[in-house]
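INFO  loader      accepted 1 record
INFO  loader      residues=84
INFO  predictor   begin
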Amino acid sequence: MNHMMLEEEAEIERLPVDLLAHIFLFTSSFTDLAQGSGVCRKWRKAVRQSLAGRERLSFSGCKMDDESTVRLVRYAYNLKELDM
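INFO  predictor   done
INFO  writer      dumping tokens
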């Protein structure tokens, strides 16, 4: 089983950051993005990169403090619409 888990981890590591960022563009849930950014440094970079390409972002239904909101919105420099 350990060998199988190592193979799966190796497969996901092969994905380039640009491809991960593109995948994250299809994720509309802020909670999912936040959890994805906590997986590892590579995923955090991909989430940040995907935020840069977003024109719309919604925190609706999420409890956000000002510091967390500022930290995320700073990466979403193409935003045209922000739903809070």
